[in-house]
């Protein structure tokens, strides 16, 4: 029964890792709970913007550490009932004189990290067959954690591109007449594409939400309100292609607001109110 508890810990961790990194919805249970908790703690601290800027990277490091610690603990619990009789110890080792649980953590940590020190090794046939599996789980955990970081950065870049383009347009103070042309339709259509990409990124890489965007002009939380303004201007333009592009952008924004509210903000309000809560959650104010 004790070994089954350890097996359950390992399986829960692998499930959380799978749902966080590879499942189409990417909604890890434990990892999302850790990230949300750290985000809320960061919001409550002083020097808010500086602390919030560390929330995303710190959350990823904490989640990776949680996965590693839980896997090591799970395998240690699996070994515990079989310690020390089912294991062989190197000559002169005093490990067998330690508490059984402590002795179980050592081979678990060695096998998960694939170090294979050899001072404590499984001796029974069943445990000897499990040792390569434990090393394989440790190698998969290390590989998945290392590949997790490069997956996030493209999503952050796409999010900042969505913010910088409207920031440049806002500086030129585009009016309805200026976007009521073929170029305006292409502009609104391009913004709609970028909004859809960011919406998809929030679904696939939810942890990207907890990263700080630097200055206001590179933050979609700040600039999304102006994107909504451009969509409304496009919807009342004279040219049908501009109105179509405005409707497309407005629909993409509505979908983005629904994702933000469902996954992060939980306001249950209209898109306009969600986009007002978005910068507030990131410690920013709309211009």
UniProtKB/TrEMBL annotation:
TM segment ranges: 51-78
Top-level taxon of the source organism: Bacteria
Entry keywords, A to Z: Membrane, Transmembrane, Transmembrane helix
The name this protein goes by in its record: Uncharacterized protein
